[in-house]
Amino acid sequence: MDGFLPGGDPVRTGKSDLPRAFAVLAVLAGIALLVLFGLTVRKAAKVAFDPVVPGTYLVQGEPRCGSKPSSTCTSESGEFVGDDGVVRSGVYLEGVPKPLRKGDRVRAFDFGDPVEVYRYETNTRVPFVLSVACAVLGTAGVGLGVSWLWQRGRARRAR
After folding, report:
1. What is this structure's pTM?
2. Which segments cross the bilayer (predicted)?
3. How far apart are CA 102 and CA 87, in angstroms?
4. Which of 16, 82, 107, 147 could be stapled to 55 by a disulfide with Cβ–Cβ 3.0 to 4.6 Å?
């Protein structure tokens, strides 16, 4: 064989390994998205569907704010008083718009996380939707990539 016939040298026949690289990349990206789904789904579902306790968060330590005007602040030390009267100290709150100072009060809700409460204005469905989107896209990436690799492998074995 001189390499110009089908199945010859890929450079001479114009064939490329690029589709195979995309299939492998799709599988790896799919696996990464499925791992991300596994890490986030429990917390996201709890925020989206479990009953939450609204209340007020009191900033006790100095908050940390981003340098950009549009960035938000994080309070790593504060006290949450639920509307049901339960008080939790040493909890964390992030995503508060600037300015935020020690002593400020922010509406928040508790969904049972031992160290974190969430801003009251936060859309609780977003983390769940993003988590499910990771699962769908991850499954599609793995499925399509493996399917393509499987079909190419069968076609090569048939020759």
Report:
1. 0.55
2. 21-41, 128-150
3. 18
4. 82
